[in-house]
Design a protein that fits this description.
ABC-type oligopeptide transporter activity; 6-stranded mixed beta sheet; ABC transporter transmembrane region fold; 20 helices; alpha/beta; 12 strands; elongated; ATP-binding
């Protein structure tokens, strides 16, 4: 069980599965120490989700096990009537009330168990709704820079994968544990009433099953930890072979045979690993059965001794036999629940820690309303560094944007253009310096309201699996700009005309009736989305990256017309498109190194002039 490689495939534990390794290294007493806190946490979450269902679940569990004890005591009365002497019609008649009590207790026990299970089954989807809603609400409310922090990103991914597993499994495990312990307590209490010596006999009979249950559970967790990497690799290969993104390349490069062989090879290794675990579990089960048989023999011997010495009646001894059998089942249920609760608790802690971290990273926003128009945006000496970066992305950057202007940001890849645009757009807060709108510091402005006044056309935009109309109007269905005008200005009208259902066409071929667009067609949809937003400030970050020269020219002309009564911040590598900008800022290594109009920058013969000349020469030579 200690294999760490599969023919070169690394199987060492990753952070995703660290908790499985922790469970493997933990003993029963560690689990028992954590149990009270886990019970408290999951019941508090359950109470907040549905108080009625929580009360029904807990109350039904408790009452059902009380009827277990009542049934045992009633069984003793029945057997006493039947075993006190030779059965006669009178004695049978006298036993009828006891028999009715036994049957009634059994019926009510089953009914309350079903009620508890019904409440738990209701709580399960409600709990998942609560957990997922909170995760999504917190995740969408953190500062955008959190997604650039590897620590937060990894935590979010891990929590997303285990959110279903943690709280839901924890609730099941806690209720299983409580039911087992309450049942064991009820049985023990009933036997204690009959004779004090019967209680230690119950505990003695439970020892072997306890050991075997813990041993089998530990092996299960060791299997989970041991095959984690292989399972992950297996799942990755299966997704590649069964989903659309890789389908064409698998066929183009004739990779099918290789992938099938790799998949089968990993599956064989996992199966061998699991079969070895099955043998260990069987051995534990055999030893548990052996010692369990010996313990049962000792218990029955002790019962026989009590009968022989006259310390218990035959009816009580018969009841004790039934109780021993039920106690073994209750003990096994409780211990299995403890093991599962401990494992689920680790995943649940992931969820709790993530929520706490996300709340600490919540977006900082003021409460001042933004100006009605983008009146004099000023960026003064700002610095910004990404969480995992060693060097700042922006250093001492200062620019200004006047109402109605077209301002361009140019520079090589990595110069800080997009980062600066995100700071201006209220997506990032600078580490130092200020961004003001109409003289008001951006930190004092309601950033959500501010972003309502900004439209962004980005190079890397989301291909929403929605209809064409929804892709354009998403987030802004109250825009004054008509959809037809946005379609025409962006050239997306020609795209929509070719779609089988027009604006109602689903832009995702994995759905029935859906279709896929080319990169250029998607770019037009994205431009239409930005224009339809009808915002006072339009930020264009490489808006024509996927378009041909003719389409690019048409889009830039549309943006120029659109900018007549708006302010535009343009980012592009194609310098021919920024000649008409009112002001151009040249960035290099996160700093503004040049500023001016196209004419003044060309006369300066600096970085901008060099870049423009190189591009012009390339186009001339190609021509």
């Amino acid at each position: 069980m200690a294999d760490d490689s599969l023919d070169g495939l690394e199987l060492k534990e990753e952070a995703w599965w660290a908790h499985d390794a922790e469970v493997t290294a933990s003993g029963l007493f560690t689990m028992l120490r954590r149990l009270p806190a886990l019970i408290r946490d999951v019941l508090v979450l359950s109470w907040r989700t549905s108080r009625v269902d929580t009360v029904v679940m807990m109350g039904s569990t408790l009452v059902s096990e009380i009827f277990t004890a009542i049934g045992l005591l009633a069984t003793t009365d029945v057997l006493t009537q039947l075993f006190s002497a030779v059965p006669t019609p009178e004695r049978l008649a006298a036993a009828v009330p006891g028999i009715a009590a036994v049957v009634g207790a059994a019926v009510l026990r089953s009914a309350f168990r079903e009620a508890g299970q019904w409440a738990r089954d209701r709580l399960d989807p409600l709990l998942m709704q609560t957990v997922h809603n909170r995760m999504v609400r917190l995740t969408t409310g953190v500062e955008l820079v959190a997604f650039d922090d590897p620590v937060f990103h990894d935590q979010m991914q891990r929590t997303s994968m285990t959110a279903v597993r943690g709280p839901s499994m924890l609730l099941w495990a806690v209720m299983s544990t409580l039911s087992g312990f309450i049942g064991l307590g009820a049985i023990s209490g009933a036997l204690g009433v009959l004779h004090p010596v019967l209680l230690p006999l119950i505990l003695l009979s439970a020892v072997p099953s306890t050991w075997a249950s813990v041993r089998v559970a530990r092996v299960n967790y060791q299997v989970t930890a041991g095959i984690a990497a292989a399972r992950r690799r297996q799942g990755t290969l299966q997704d590649l072979m069964t989903e659309r993104p890789a389908a064409a390349e698998i066929r183009s490069y004739t990779m099918r045979s290789y992938l099938l062989a790799e998949f089968a090879r990993i599956y064989r290794w996992v199966t061998r690993y699991e079969l070895r675990a099955v043998r260990r579990q069987q051995v534990a089960g055999i030893w548990g059965s052996l010692f369990g048989g010996l313990a049962t023999g000792l218990v029955y011997g002790a019962l026989g001794l009590l009968l022989w010495t006259g310390q218990v009646h035959l009816a009580v001894a018969a009841t004790a036999v039934l109780a021993i059998q039920r106690a073994g089942s209750a003990t096994s249920q409780a211990l299995h629940g403890v093991n599962r609760a401990y494992e689920a608790g680790l995943f649940y802690e992931d969820y709790v820690h993530f929520c706490a971290d996300a709340e600490a990273r919540a977006e900082v926003s003021g409460n001042t309303a933004p100006p009605a128009e983008p009146d004099r945006v000023r960026v003064e000496g700002i610095d910004f560094t990404y969480p995992a970066a060693d060097t700042p992305a922006l250093t001492g950057v200062s620019i200004r944007i006047e109402p109605g202007e077209i301002v361009a940001l140019v520079g090589e890849n990595g110069s800080g253009k997009t980062t600066l645009a995100k700071v201006i757009g209220g997506l990032y807060l600078p580490d130092a310096g200020t961004v003001t709108w109409g003289g008001v510091d951006e930190r004092r402005i309601d950033r959500s309201a501010l972003r309502e006044r900004i439209a962004v056309i980005a190079q890397d935009f989301t291909h929403w699996p929605l209809t064409a109309g929804q892709n354009i109007a998403i987030g802004r269905h109250d825009s004054g700009e008509s959809l037809d005008a946005a379609l025409t200005a962006s050239g997306a009208d020609a795209v929509v005309e070719r779609l089988p259902y027009g604006l109602e066409t689903m832009l995702d071929p994995s759905y029935k009736g859906g279709t896929e667009l080319s990169g250029g067609q998607w770019q037009r949809i994205a431009v239409a989305r930005g224009l339809y937003r009808d915002a006072p400030l339009l930020i264009c970050d490489e808006p024509t990256a996927s378009l041909d020269a003719r389409s690019e020219h048409a889009i830039f002309e549309s943006i120029r017309r659109h900018a007549v009564q708006r302010t535009v911040l343009m980012i592009t590598h194609r310098l021919a498109s920024v000649r008409w900008a009112d002001r151009i800022y040249v960035l290099e290594h996160g700093k503004v190194v040049e500023e001016g109009t196209h004419v003044s920058l060309m006369e300066r013969s600096g970085i901008y002039a060099e870049m423009f000349t190189l591009q012009s020469r390339a186009y001339t030579e190609e021509g």
